[in-house]
Structure prediction request, 432 residues.
Amino acid sequence: MPRNLRRLMHLVLFCPLSKGLQLRLPAVKVKYLMVAWLGVLVASWVVYMQYSSYSELCRGHVCTMLICEHYERGIISGSVCKSLCEEQTLTLQRCLSTSPTRQVYSAMWKEKAVVVKCALEEAVGGAGAPGPGLTRPAGLYDKPARGTSMDEFREMLHSFLKDSLGEQASLASLVSRVVSLADVNQDGRVSLAEAKAAWALLHVNEFVLLLALQDKEHAPRLLGHCGHLYVTERVAHGALFRLEVPAWARPLVPDAMARALNRWLAPAWPRRARIAIGLLEFVEEAFHGAYGSLYMCDGGGRAVGYSASYDCKLADLGGVASEAAVRAFLRGRTCRGSEDCTFGRDCAATCDRLARRCNTEVVRPNLAKACALLADFLLFGAPGDLREDLERQLRTCATLSGLASQMEVHHSLVLSNLKTLLWKEISDTKYS
Prediction:
């Protein structure tokens, strides 16, 4: 080791210690103190990253403060407002947010574990520059205006849902579902405060999809709302894999170690097969459902979870989008390559290079995305006599592409074969 470097290390390591203490520790080597100081530095970095990440992402107190302020002023209403703002029996617990503008918390309400979600946006200063803190989305409670009749409100709802989901024969039933949810006191009338809360909720994409999928077993149940804050049942396991390494810790944890731990913590293979069948059933429902086709545009293991009885549940529908929303985004969009024609992370269309406009049909279907996800989840620990066939079918499925309108029959056949293969393995067992 160069002499100057040794002097520098001695200065850094021993300077904080008094000479008397140094004389009492004659056996301490420089390398041991260096390791100790390195441990302190790493621990300090971990604590700092945890704190900075939490303070940036977790603003639940801001959300509840804004909601309760509007509730106390009589601007909004909702079925959980009293519990949240007066009785304080709806209490936020663990922060689950992955974005500062979308607050997600585990909570307790009526002695039941639930999930609370609400939207915020960055505050903007007078000159248009980002300001400190977060606020509710601008103009969220401006509609409907005082004096709006019930028929006018229904028309507003129908028009908005048509823009969100496309022209569907079942929109009238969804409008009735919104009106029923808005009528908190069940008196057959919708007050202005109740209408403002319902209108605000419709601007949250996940809420619209939750409402549309309430009669489906793969979506969490809606339990209540207050303004644009809403409460859902808590999915026992919010992701396919239980262990998720935070972004700041990934340099310290090898991928192989994280993968091995997730496999060790995963349910038994027959239970994973049951979960996989549930996900494939959701893919079936999402294609040409009652409210049009839905696309998985921001998928991954974090969005798909399962209940305590190992039934598939989409714990987070924030990454799911309607066909109408995806087409509206892509229509008329200028592009130089296909990378310019992507909605979310996973809904990619092709670019017409001559016209320099995006095409409006998504190339990779939901089924291919689901199978790519299931390959990691299903193949390890699979029965030996099944593994080769399962791997082949998953590989075929994960590489599906082409416009859905042209490949519908082929996709249906691949999905049916995969479901049959899994179901035959677990049928007539306790796992079915």
User: Anything to note?
Assistant: The CA atoms of residues 109 and 279 lie 29 Å apart. The longest helix spans residues 30-57. DSSP finds 15 helices and 15 strands in the chain. Confidence is low (pLDDT under 50) at residues 122-136.
